[in-house]
Amino acid sequence: MDPTNVIVKVCIVAIPLVLAITLHEAAHGYVARMFGDNTAYMLGRVTLNPAKHIDPIGTILFPLATILSGSGIVFGWAKPVPVNFSNLRKPKADMLWVAAAGPASNVIQATAWAALAKAIELANGSSMVAEFWFAVAIAGIQWNVVVAVFNLFPILPLDGGRIVTALLPGRLSYSYSRLEPYGMPILIGFIVLLAVYQPLGQLFAAVMGAGNNFFYALFGIE
């Protein structure tokens, strides 16, 4: 095994993944501060420093385990940014914008990576540097699609669950929010089901593929 080749492959995966999760979490904290909650800012979480957001299990071990499983489905997570929703000026309504900020940052990043990939194509770059950054850009599209879609699952404490909580009327919203303690076991069970139940895994892979193809088509990436 060529150590240099291994390092290059790790960098191709790691650069866009670290950016995807770092900007995702920082976006939550930034928008929360805009709407009145300084919790994340006071704890130093409104930052582009990856070390502040990386979770050893969710960002490193769990993605590695899902890659090694050979299922073709890769999952992971970062340290959740702390948000005190009661500090928001309009807690229930503002929760939606705080939650949506994370996936929105991934859509923006996927767009930026797609633009970079197209620029490299147009430049007809054939050097090793151009090939490396083209591979990074493609991985950037794919990672950001995964992070955005995964976080939009309507399961608390994921962003999708927060958005549903914000959109539901009072009593339903309260009842739904009480499901949060069961969210992680449900989520882990769902991930295992994706890995072992082929039709569901194929459906999820098709959704990921459609997301990737959207950005490829948007910029005409070959």
Question: How would you portray this structure in words?
Answer:
The structure is a single chain. The protein is an all-alpha fold and 222 residues long. It has one domain (3-219). It has nine helices and no strands. The protein has helices at residues 3-34, 39-42, 56-68, 91-122, 128-151, 159-167, 170-177, 183-196, 198-219. Helix 4 crosses helix 6 (159-167). The radius of gyration is 18 Å and the shape is globular. The two termini are 30 Å apart. 33% of the residues are buried.
What is this structure, in a nutshell?
The chain has 222 residues and is mostly helical. 71% of the residues lie in helices and 0% in strands. The radius of gyration is 18 Å and the shape is globular.
Q: What's the helix and strand layout?
A:
Layout: H1 3-34, H2 39-42, H3 56-68, H4 91-122, H5 128-151, H6 159-167, H7 170-177, H8 183-196, H9 198-219
Helix pairs in contact: 1-4, 1-5, 4-5, 4-6, 4-9, 5-9, 6-7, 8-9
Instruction: Estimate the strand proportion.
Output: under 5%
Number of domains: 1
Radius of gyration, rounded?
18 Å
N→C terminal distance: 30 Å
- Topology, number of strands: 0
Largest sheet data: none
Question: What is the average of the pLDDT values?
Answer: 88
Q: Uncertain regions: pLDDT < 50 for 5+ in a row?
A: none
Order of helices and strands: HHHHHHHHH
Number of helices: 9
